[in-house]
Amino acid sequence: MHSYSVRNFRDGDEREIVGLFNEVYKEYAGFVPRTIEYWRWCCLERPDVKPDGIFLAFDEKKLCGYLVAGSSGNIWEFCVADGEVAGVLLAEALSYLEKVGVSSVNVNIPQDSSVAETLAKAGFGKVPAETMFITTLNPQVLISTLASSRKEELINKKINDEFGVQLHDAPHSVETEFSVKIRGETVEVVEGFPSKPSVVIALSFVDFLSVLFGFSNAGRLFLVGKMKVKPLWKLSVVLKFLSTFCFRRSWFFPLSDFG
Amino acid sequence: MGESFICRTIQKKDDETVRGLVESTFSRFLSGNFWDWKYLRNPSFDRSFVAVAENDGKIVGCNHWLLRKFKLSDSVVVDGVLAADIVVNPEYRKRGVGRTLMNFSRSHHERKKLVLMYMFANPELRKHFHTPIGGYIPAPSGTAMYTKILNWNKVKRNVAVFNEKVNLGEFKDKLAKVDLTVAFRVRDAPPLCLHVNSEGVESDASDEQADVTISSDMATFSKIKSEKIGTWKLVELVLTGKLKFKGKLRKMLTAYKNMWVFREILSGKIT
């Protein structure tokens, strides 16, 4: 069992805090390296946060966890390098929050985090999490952006087709027809329906997005008639194509990022 | 015949009106100079990402967005926006202001070549408003949310508000024949016991006098205090042992019939 030293925030701690945040959350979808300026705004300058509600835990001189608690009862950030230090920080935060008269405490953590055990031990109960909803302004740009990071997969899958994509029930001003031409690792996305596509895929905008973000299964959409493929024998190529661009990481944002 | 609302980008002279509109709508959840902090002092704040809707020169709605960068893979980062506060003056709701603002903002974001838009929203509102208008889908969640109740002070404040309404004659008929004490035992939370009668609610009732005891864990408690839970869901929770009722059947039925009182008191930002 480690012995950690815990103290409140002091000016100058920002660099280490941001460094730890960037290390702990780098694998989650949507993560973009934090800056000191952003952290100061979203935590330190938040109307319900005072420096004595920010706790830092050190293993000797190395920062191994921090917690930002607000008088609204929200733990805006709870970032730890391991589960053991979480209990130490949580005990300090709960004592602070009781002192400032909070009725209930809310905290969110990544689903696979070892902190869950610490929270359960401290009497926290799991409640439904805020749901994140996402959409795209431009499906074509999204596809071509994702393609640039899936080159190896494209080569392995040996796709050599021109897909004509038709989206129905699309939101205001979204281009509903475009073509995706794949030759080896090269992907070309062009607005408008192609003159001679080798495969045509027709589905709703929302279903298309659900497949891309890994929320729906393309095969199931086809079976229930929500996705149409022409010619039918190219179905396996379509499934291969969609799975290549499917987004696989799950999303996590600390409460401080909810806006 | 639909009304016409003009949408435009916020200007400095609109700050006070917009601040007032947002803070009056969210005053239950927020305090302090929330709007100034969230927008004016935000390092990535850009006025062009706040839209206002006008009717005869009066601002009747606003829609705020925050610029964010998104990492889609180890090497790919795209520009996106987080949908923040969208507010419509209560007198102008259900008249298409929200839809007009959303479409205006969407066109603006497209011109700025943004790729993604995201938000954290009430799932019901998403289903009836955000998906039909903006094509939003739920993102695969990697988030777990936890709550701990330290005390019932907020509930006591809600009880005081409820009793004020009762004193003004509200709920008179509904409460006329009620005389019931319900104890709530939420795992790891302090005990709560509410006595309801025609005069209102008492929050310091003794546990020993409880006609009905309702026991659950935090997750189930959070569900039962929600308006959205129906009878069948409630039955399911009882059958799966997640929700336990103890007391005489007649009293339990009275508690069920008067669940609205407990929802009125326990709902909102209590937990």
A few lines on this structure:
The complex is a heterodimer of chains A (259) and B (271). By secondary structure, chain A is an alpha+beta fold.
Features:
heterodimer, A: 259 residues, alpha+beta, Aminopeptidase, Nonspecific Lipid-transfer Protein, Chain A, 2 domains, five-stranded mixed β-sheet, elongated, B: 271 residues, 10 helices
Topology:
The complex is a heterodimer of chains A (259) and B (271).
Chain A: E1 5-8, H1 14-24, H2 36-44, E2 54-59, E3 62-69, E4 74-80, H3 83-99, E5 104-110, H4 115-121, E6 125-127, E7 131-136, H5 139-147, H6 151-157, E8 160-168, E9 177-183, E10 186-191, E11 199-204, H7 205-212, H8 218-223, E12 227-230, H9 235-245
Parallel strand pairs in A: 4-5, 8-11
Antiparallel strand pairs in A: 1-2, 2-3, 3-4, 8-9, 9-10, 11-12
Chain B: E1 6-9, H1 15-25, H2 34-40, E2 50-55, E3 58-71, E4 77-88, H3 97-111, E5 116-121, H4 123-134, E6 137-138, E7 143-149, H5 153-167, H6 172-175, E8 179-186, E9 192-197, E10 200-202, E11 212-216, H7 218-224, H8 231-239, E12 243-247, H9 249-257, H10 259-266
Parallel strand pairs in B: 4-5, 8-11
Antiparallel strand pairs in B: 1-2, 2-3, 3-4, 8-9, 9-10, 11-12
